[in-house]
């Protein structure tokens, strides 16, 4: 964290301030002092900075929007306390007068008063819910009242002098501090808690009627040391982890203890080494501020020291003045108010949030109320989506490239390997991990390694990602080094080459511990508390150089080419060191090149320019080029990236107010360097030529691209081309060259508008130029299907399929977001029945699904899909109805048997003449057919030698494959061949227990295989230019329309006949196509037009006459015929060429397996049958 004084408010008449209270909800500050002084102040923030960006948080100007003096007290104000839940202020003075103030019409007024002048009020505290207040007096009187002003109970504690009070977080206990340094515990009714008092002093064993908190921070002494600070964090804003200390007790001697609960016997002990006056927790219990005075060289100095809950000292703030009396926190813990003499000082705090940035993802952490552990949020700033994961304890994190690393600790303190390194992607999903035994204090990473350091050792872990695993292999290297060692890299190389056991690394305590770390792909730098900076060359971890600064480094960073190192020390002084000599470059270190700045709390080097550095100095951002700064910009953001002359920062302070809903608009800011801003102003106000001269003096690819875009807007193509050349952007250069080839000025402007992402303007230009086709094409490329539909509805001419595609794509958009109800409306407009069924299924609208069963034609594949949907939800009757209409009665029977609906299964078997249903292989084909696993069913039948049943299953499988819209034809043929060969095995080895469900199965055994064999052969011959052979083969497909769609058969035949100039065959094929009943009217009209185009130029006669003599009747027939027109004999077909074997069969070869013939000449160079693939 970093803290600095930012504002001072003087109280009139030099009136000394005794107490301050800051309302964390509404921001009001109550100030009480001598002579009854009571003021309520409020700081208002807002406005815009010099760049026009609205400033928020600490960067905004802080002006007093309220400065009201409240009159009612006459003596010195002692105690101030806010009731934030009910917006009330309770004050008390030295005489014991208590006044409750309330807000009315923008001002504070007295609501009620209590005047008990017997003693002074020394403490007041509201319960966490704001319903009860406990008031304690110096003489031991205790009063608990309600928010309405009613007295609940009161007690007079005898012989007790009180000094303060606090409620427990749950409101069940009251904690009292005494003048003698003791702290006592009571319940919320004022009853003593009976408990033994046990101490670590063996001479003292007491029993009393009250529970006394064990005090370990003070030494045994007769001197009474009073308690000056008592604060119990209520946990309303979450905890760092479940066992985080939250009760702070501070003594005047500067000693303090922080406890996990009221009975903690192992508290955290602090020694601030000053005279303490006050202590307080911040809003989430992560920081404790202790205010006091310290004598330094016989001079008293006011100090505020900051600690984390585990006692680690973080910062010390020196405050001017004579005597500090109080320190309070703002609601978001970004400021503290300090009461010093007659002044109120404000100090700004820049917290060290645990966060990082990588791949357009901001990773930040926060504590959620009622949820133990740390919430790690992965905020994708490109699509404004946030993913969260929880870890028990988070110590550090860092990001690089596509991943980040989380350093966690298990909740068990003594667990071995208790510290974990988790490598995560942008969604927070772990992709790799590693357990380590050292206690990490800092982590850094590059493209190959995660480096984590403790105070004495550091570990270099070569992590693996899904992309890097094939390169790095399964072996992940993890090496530990001691901070005092001088590694040369030779030992590790020898161990890797010879696979030797690693030498154990020492873990002894170092006198100069490590405190910070950073790395690039080339080097690793570790900072030590003495100011020593150790430079290690990567990847072999070789200590090559050491650098020294005057004080302890707090943060370090390296520029993009590893030549300069920036260091921020604990005092906020940033120094830039030249480390180029460590990487073999000549050093440029000199007094004139030295850069040093004060009050710096963050820094970031540009990723594309080693000279550019952005730093945060208080609430201003400075950008340095070398050692020369640009004009500062007011900003309180944390720098994410610095690239392309643009800085992206995230407002983590604002995000922490509502971490569940980060917003790109509200929580991200982009700042440009001065050269980029000046270039924009020159282009807007002066002109392109002057801007070009400026860019030549300050060259950068981003500036040249900016100039090129401005030139494109003015259609100055030569200037744009020149600028893109200098920016080395080849793709944009090609774009300009294409623009030159466009003759239409309007189209050219539209293309430029598209390039500049002004899509609406581009569309407008296209429409004005009467090029609605280009406007539609633009919107299609962008995926803006809503706009495509609008353009088409406005009367733009386009193909019919485009509107259908637009409706389908729009529906898919809604499907992506699971908006099924809207998606089904667009699918209905598109006529997409299949997707409509899917949507109704997701909507669980089973009545609509049932209506589709009546609408769809028998055998429609969608019926099977509907049946499957009903079967998944065990809606048996509708599923069976769908299966039966589809024609898959076996599936309906299987479903009935699966759900033990045997009566329905038997009825179906009788209805569709399926015998022996009670056996079903025999008894249901061994339970596999009921699951639809045909491969397993075939395998089981083969093992049982039921080849006929196996063949039937194989034919079913082949039929299923053939009905797929995206079927693989070769795969379908293989299924049919396999089924036919199983049937042949049945013929060779018949099983009496089997019967054929289809008598035609034997006659049609090879039909399916022949159909797809000749279909593929015709396609192959067509594409290889053998047109007549393709015609002969395609002509055979007319006998296989039961296996291949008729439209596919006759389309192929018409095409091959037309190309072969056999217009007689072509005419018959087209006539057949026109008469197919499944054709739509549009498709039929297309075929009619095609026939008209062909036969207006050609007579329907075959121009080629290849005649062969029939071997039976000696009549000459065409070589493509399958039977003789005279003797009606059927000619066998050559499986190799697809031609009919018309002449003598002596020159043919017969397959011994499938018994299909082929010309001997075609099989000379073949090793197997081309149909069944059996060896010759």
What does this structure look like?
- The protein is of the alpha+beta class and 1176 residues long.
- It is built from 29 helices and 64 strands.
- The strands form 18 sheets. Strands 51, 52, 53, 54 and 55 form a five-stranded antiparallel β-sheet that branches.
- Strand 37 (419-424) and strand 38 form a beta hairpin.
- It is elongated and about 140 Å long.
Summarize, please.
Helix content is about 30%, strand content about 30%. Helix 26 runs antiparallel to helix 27 (about 1045-1060).
Topology:
Layout (H helix, E strand, L loop, with lengths): L1 E9 L6 E6 L5 E6 L4 E9 L14 E9 L7 E7 L4 E6 L3 E8 L2 E9 L5 E6 L5 E6 L3 E6 L4 E6 L5 E6 L5 E6 L4 E5 L7 E4 L6 E4 L2 E2 L14 E6 L14 E5 L3 E5 L8 E4 L3 E7 L6 E8 L4 E8 L5 E7 L4 E6 L5 E6 L2 E8 L4 E4 L2 E8 L2 E10 L4 E7 L1 E8 L2 E7 L9 E6 L5 E7 L5 E4 L3 E5 L3 E6 L6 H4 L5 E5 L7 H9 L15 E6 L3 E6 L3 E6 L4 E7 L4 E6 L5 E6 L4 E5 L16 E3 L2 E6 L6 E6 L2 E6 L2 E2 L3 E2 L3 E6 L2 E5 L1 H6 L6 H4 E5 L1 H12 L2 H10 L3 H13 L3 H11 L2 H11 L4 H11 L3 H10 L3 H11 L2 H9 L6 H17 L3 H11 L2 H10 L3 H10 L5 H12 L3 H11 L2 H10 L3 H10 L8 E2 ...
Parallel strand pairs: 59-60
Antiparallel strand pairs: 1-30, 2-3, 3-4, 4-5, 6-7, 7-8, 8-9, 10-11, 11-12, 12-13, 14-15, 15-16, 16-19, 17-18, 20-21, 21-22, 22-23, 24-25, 25-26, 26-27, 28-29, 29-30, 31-32, 32-33, 33-34, 35-36, 36-37, 37-38, 39-40, 40-41, 41-42, 43-44, 44-45, 45-46, 47-48, 48-49, 49-50, 51-52, 52-53, 53-54, ...
Helix pairs in contact: 5-6, 5-7, 6-7, 7-8, 8-9, 10-11, 11-12, 12-13, 13-14, 14-15, 15-16, 18-19, 19-20, 20-21, 22-23, 23-24, 24-25, 25-26, 26-27, 27-28, 28-29
């Amino acid at each position: 964290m970093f803290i600095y004084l930012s504002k001072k408010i003087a109280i009139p008449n030099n009136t000394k301030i005794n107490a301050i209270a800051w309302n964390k909800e509404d921001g009001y500050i109550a100030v009480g002092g001598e002579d009854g002084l009571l003021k309520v102040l409020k700081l208002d923030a807002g406005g815009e900075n010099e760049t026009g960006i609205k400033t928020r948080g600490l960067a905004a100007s802080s002006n007093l929007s309220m400065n009201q003096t409240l009159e009612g007290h006459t003596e010195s104000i002692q105690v101030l306390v806010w009731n934030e839940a009910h917006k009330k202020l309770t004050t008390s003075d030295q005489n014991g007068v208590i006044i409750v103030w309330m807000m009315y019409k923008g001002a504070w007024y007295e609501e009620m008063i209590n005047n008990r002048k017997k003693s002074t009020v020394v403490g007041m505290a509201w319960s966490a819910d704001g319903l009860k207040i406990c008031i304690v007096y110096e003489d031991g009187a205790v009063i608990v009242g309600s928010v309405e002003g009613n007295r609940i109970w009161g007690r007079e504690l005898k012989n007790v002098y009180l000094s303060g009070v606090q409620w427990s977080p749950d409101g069940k206990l009251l904690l009292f501090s005494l003048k003698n340094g003791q702290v006592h515990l009571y319940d919320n009714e004022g009853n003593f808690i009976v408990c033994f008092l046990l101490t670590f002093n063996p001479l003292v064993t007491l029993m009393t009627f009250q529970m006394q908190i064990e005090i370990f921070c003070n030494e045994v002494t007769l001197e009474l040391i009073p308690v000056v600070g008592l604060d119990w964090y209520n946990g309303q804003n979450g905890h760092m982890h479940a066992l985080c200390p939250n009760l702070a007790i501070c003594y005047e001697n500067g000693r303090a203890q922080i406890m996990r609960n009221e009975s903690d016997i192992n508290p955290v002990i602090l020694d601030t080494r000053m005279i303490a006056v006050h202590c307080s927790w911040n809003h989430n219990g992560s920081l404790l501020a202790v205010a006091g005075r310290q004598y330094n060289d016989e001079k008293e100095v006011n100090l505020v020291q900051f600690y984390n809950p585990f006692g680690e000292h973080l910062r010390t703030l020196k405050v001017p003045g004579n005597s500090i009396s109080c320190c309070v926190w703002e609601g978001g813990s970004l400021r503290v108010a300090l009461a010093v003499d007659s002044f109120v000082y404000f100090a700004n705090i820049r917290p060290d949030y645990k966060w990082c940035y990588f791949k357009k993802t901001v990773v930040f952490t926060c504590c959620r109320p009622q949820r133990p552990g740390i919430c790690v949020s992965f905020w994708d700033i490109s699509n404004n989506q946030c993913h969260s994961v929880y870890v028990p304890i988070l110590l550090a994190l860092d990001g690089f490239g596509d991943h980040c690393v989380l350093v966690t600790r298990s909740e068990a303190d003594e667990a071995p390997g208790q510290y974990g390194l988790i490598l995560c992607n942008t969604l927070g999903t772990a992709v790799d991990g590693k357990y380590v035994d050292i206690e990490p204090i800092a982590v850094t990473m590059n493209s190959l390694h995660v480096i984590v350091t403790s105070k004495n050792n550091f570990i270099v872990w070569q992590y693996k990602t899904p992309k890097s695993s094939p390169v790095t292999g399964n072996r992940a290297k993890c090496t530990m080094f001691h901070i005092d060692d001088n590694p040369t890299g030779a030992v590790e190389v020898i161990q890797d080459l010879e696979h030797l056991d690693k030498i154990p690394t020492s873990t002894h305590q170092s006198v100069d511990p490590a405190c910070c770390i950073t790395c690039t792909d080339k080097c690793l730098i570790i900072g030590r508390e003495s100011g020593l900076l150790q430079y290690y060359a990567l990847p072999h971890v070789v200590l090559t150089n050491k650098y020294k600064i005057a004080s302890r480094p707090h943060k370090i960073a390296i520029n993009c080419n590893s030549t300069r190192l920036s260091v921020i020390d604990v005092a906020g002084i940033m120094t830039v060191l030249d480390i180029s000599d460590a990487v073999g470059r000549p050093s440029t270190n000199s007094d004139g090149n030295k850069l040093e700045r004060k009050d710096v709390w963050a820094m970031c080097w540009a990723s594309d320019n080693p000279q550019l550095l952005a730093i945060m100095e208080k609430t201003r951002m400075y950008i340095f080029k070398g050692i020369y700064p640009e004009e500062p910009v007011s900003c309180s953001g944390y720098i994410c990236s610095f690239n392309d002359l643009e800085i992206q920062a995230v407002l983590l302070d604002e995000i922490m107010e509502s971490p569940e809903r980060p917003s790109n608009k509200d929580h991200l800011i982009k700042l440009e360097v001065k050269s980029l801003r000046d270039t924009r102003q020159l282009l807007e106000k002066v002109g392109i030529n002057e801007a070009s001269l400026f860019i030549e003096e300050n060259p950068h690819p981003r500036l040249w691209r900016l100039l090129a875009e401005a030139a494109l807007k003015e259609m100055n193509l030569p200037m744009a081309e020149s600028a893109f050349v200098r920016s080395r952007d080849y793709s944009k250069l090609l774009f300009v060259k294409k623009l030159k080839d466009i003759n239409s000025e309007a189209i050219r402007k539209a293309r430029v508008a598209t390039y500049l992402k002004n899509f609406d303007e581009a569309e407008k230009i296209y429409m004005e130029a009467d090029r609605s086709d280009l406007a539609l094409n633009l919107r299609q490329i962008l995926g803006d299907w809503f706009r495509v539909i609008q353009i088409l509805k406005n009367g733009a001419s386009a193909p019919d399929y485009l509107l259908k595609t637009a409706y389908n794509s729009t529906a898919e958009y809604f499907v992506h977001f699971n908006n099924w109800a809207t998606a089904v409306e667009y699918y209905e407009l598109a006529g997409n029945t299949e997707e409509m069924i899917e949507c109704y299924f997701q909507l669980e609208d089973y009545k609509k699904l049932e209506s589709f069963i009546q609408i769809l034609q028998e055998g429609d594949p969608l019926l099977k899909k509907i049946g499957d949907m009903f079967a998944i939800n065990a809606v048996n009757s509708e599923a069976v109805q769908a299966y039966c209409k589809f024609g898959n009665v076996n599936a309906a029977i299987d479903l009935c048997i699966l759900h033990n609906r045997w009566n329905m299964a038997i009825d179906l078997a009788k209805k569709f003449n399926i015998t022996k249903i009670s056996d079903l292989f025999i008894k249901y084909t061994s339970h596999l057919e009921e699951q639809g696993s045909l491969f397993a069913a075939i395998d089981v039948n083969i093992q049982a030698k039921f080849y006929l049943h196996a063949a039937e299953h194989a034919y079913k499988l082949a039929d299923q494959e053939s009905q797929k819209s995206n079927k693989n034809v070769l795969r379908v043929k293989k299924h049919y061949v396999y089924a036919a060969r199983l049937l042949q095995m049945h013929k060779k080895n018949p099983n009496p227990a089997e019967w054929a469900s289809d008598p035609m199965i034997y006659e049609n055994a090879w039909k399916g295989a022949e159909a797809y064999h000749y279909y593929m052969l015709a396609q192959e011959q067509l594409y290889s230019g053998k047109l007549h052979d393709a015609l002969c083969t395609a002509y055979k497909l007319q006998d296989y329309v039961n296996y291949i769609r008729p439209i596919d058969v006759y389309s192929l035949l018409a095409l091959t006949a037309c190309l072969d100039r056999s217009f007689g065959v072509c005419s018959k094929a087209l006539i057949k196509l026109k008469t197919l009943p499944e054709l739509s009217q549009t498709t039929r009209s297309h075929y009619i037009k095609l026939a008209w185009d062909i036969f207006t130029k050609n007579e329907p006669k075959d121009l080629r006459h290849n005649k062969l003599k029939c071997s039976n009747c000696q009549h000459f027939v065409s070589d493509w015929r399958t039977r003789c027109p005279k003797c009606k004999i059927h000619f066998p077909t050559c499986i190799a060429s697809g031609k009919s074997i018309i002449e003598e069969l002596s020159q043919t070869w017969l397959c011994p397996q499938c018994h299909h013939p082929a010309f001997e000449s075609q099989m000379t160079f073949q090793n197997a049958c081309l149909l069944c693939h059996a060896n010759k």
